[in-house]
Amino acid sequence: MDFTFTEEQQAVVEAARALFAGVVPDGVPSPARTPGAVAEDFDRAVWARLADADLLGLLIGTEHGGVDLDAIALCLVLRESAKVLARVPLLEHAAAAALVQAHGSAELRRRVLPRAALGQLVLTAAAHGRTGHDRADLAVTARPAGDGWLLDGLQTAVPWAQNADLVLVPARADDGHTVLALVPRVHQGLTIAEQCSTSGERLGELRLEDVRVDARDVIEAAGAWDRLRDLLATGTCALALGLGEAVLRMTGEYTGKREQFGHPIATFQAVAVQAADRYIDLRAMEVTLWQAAWRISTGADSALPVTGDVAVAKIWASEGVRRVVQTAQHLHGGFGADTDYPLHRYHAWAKQLELSLGPAAAYEETLGDLLAAHPLG
Asked: By C-alpha distance, which of 165, 177, 262 is closest to 226?
């Protein structure tokens, strides 16, 4: 078995590291000091650089101006972005574009993907349902109406909803199958209420009342929603891994300089053991992430559907990133809570990622259901 990344994937990592090298995690006000959102918009300057580096079209075909890579490449870039808390909708944009690429009509692909690859059209996805714990595909209903569909329902915690141009909304049709509708941010019947994430970023609550969407803007392919959900969850795991690696590195640097009794506290056994445990967490997060991303990228068969690998990765990501930031706060002492020091920002982002698309317990339930339905030989 060869676990080496391809030359194209390695090139993507190098490009991402160079691009994010100039991004600082404290470029916006502290979420601990700011009532409401820390900024009105995402980082458009970084977004433009991502477009110039062809990193917005990772999952878009070359015929539409993309680079036609896979979920592994996307996760590699997301991992680098999280190390500096880059404030861009890269995950949601790439996932929505991937669904249009894989399941959209030729006309929809021509209309959306070239502009998405250039960053001129910003996409996001509504995947949290009404509460963040129920199924998003049940939160909105879709019924046929002439040459289109009418959508009714509510989706909460939609990332960058106020700043995206199109929102990919899952909805349940009367016959039980799920469709995905591309809904413009400004559209009759659609209202967006202000919400705020733990990290201080803007979220949107989408309320849809008889929102009419043309059939040409609706993806009806079987399995499209499952693919979107799995890709979003796996990308969230990549963000958690990158954030955790940055935090552990920050902790190592601090404990190597902070002295007690004339010695760096990193030399104390109690400190070293805690840091080593968190390193093990990160390695488990990494291996389960790449397993899920590989299954999504290749469609390889296994004893369980790909959702099982995604569930395992999300369990490790949610629990692992929480343990990493908690240990970091402990080893930093009071300094970790200083709002002039970036660690508290990573803690806030980690809590958001831990619960994003559901906590570990939700994925443990999913994994249990899969194991019951697919007994392992």
From this structure: 177
Helices (H) and strands (E) in the chain, counts: 10, 10
Letter for the amino acid at 224? A
Alpha-carbon gap, residue 258 to 262, rounded angstroms:
10
User: Distance between CA atoms of 187 and 180, rounded to whole angstroms?
Assistant: 16
Query: How far apart (Å, rounded) are the C-alpha atoms in residues 125 and 138?
Result: 15
pTM exceeds 0.90 for this model: yes
Residue 89 has φ and ψ, to the nearest 5°, of -85, 45
User: Is the separation of the CB atoms in 82 and 246 below 8 Å?
Assistant: yes
Q: Write the pLDDT tens digit of every residue in 97-106.
A: 999 999 999 9
Question: What are the residues whose beta carbons fall under 8 Å from the beta carbon of 10, sequence distance 6 or more?
Answer: none
Helix (H) or strand (E) holding 191: strand 190-196
Q: How far is CA 218 from the centre of its chain?
A: 23
- Interacting residues of 152 by C-beta distance below 8 A, sequence separation 6+: 140, 141, 208, 209, 210, 211
Residues 345, 78: Cα–Cα separation, whole Å: 17
**What whole-number distance in Å separates Cα of residue 301 and Cα of residue 316?**
22
